[in-house]
Amino acid sequence: MDITELLLHPVRLRVVHAFSGGRVLTTAQLCARMPEVPKVTMYRQVGLLVEADFLEVAEEQRVRGAVERHYRLRQDRPVVDAEAAAAMSLDDHRRGFVAAMAVLIAEFNAYLDRDGADPVADGVSYRQGTFWLSPSELSELSGELLTVLWPRLANRPTADRAPYLLSPILFPAEAGAEPDHPTETRA
């Protein structure tokens, strides 16, 4: 299974998110985090991620006669890079977007279902806006976002940090859209 196909599945994508920040988890802990996912499905998806070299066994220990495996994301795991994204069909992109939205909805519902969920206090945001950008401005914006976000990806869990899921979504709203009014020029 190629990396694109591997990550176009909502449960596998949620599992990958669960391991962010260097977390080490068992499949039982994943099941507890995602109770709506049947256990057999969770075990199957974790197995596929291990088989695809996305997860690795961090440690094993005997628990009541069975071997309990603790997993973590591989540091050298495969990624969907620009070349892989360019090779994806339009249907692959459609499936990827649907998987990402399914994960976002499931994770947001799990957040709201937690005791003490407080969207205002927790800084929850789901705003949308339209930006008019030239190709060079789009490239500049993407670079600026990466510059701001990249250092935060290295953060590890601590007592004063909570995990936040950020899902930037960017696509052209209309093909060939023209402004409703002439562009103003200011001196």
3D structure, described in words:
The chain has 187 residues and is mainly α. It has a domain at 3-126: Winged helix-like DNA-binding domain superfamily/Winged helix DNA-binding domain (Arc Repressor Mutant, subunit A). Helix content is 44%, strand content 10%. It has helices spanning 3-7, 10-18, 27-33, 39-51, 82-87, 90-113, 135-153, and strands at 25-26, 55-63, 66-73. Strands 1-3-2 form a three-stranded antiparallel sheet. A hairpin with a 2-residue loop joins β2 (55-63) and β3. The model is unreliable at 182-187 (pLDDT under 50).
How is the topology of this model organized?
Layout: H1 3-7, H2 10-18, E1 25-26, H3 27-33, H4 39-51, E2 55-63, E3 66-73, H5 82-87, H6 90-113, H7 135-153
Antiparallel strand pairs: 1-3, 2-3
Helix pairs in contact: 2-6, 3-4
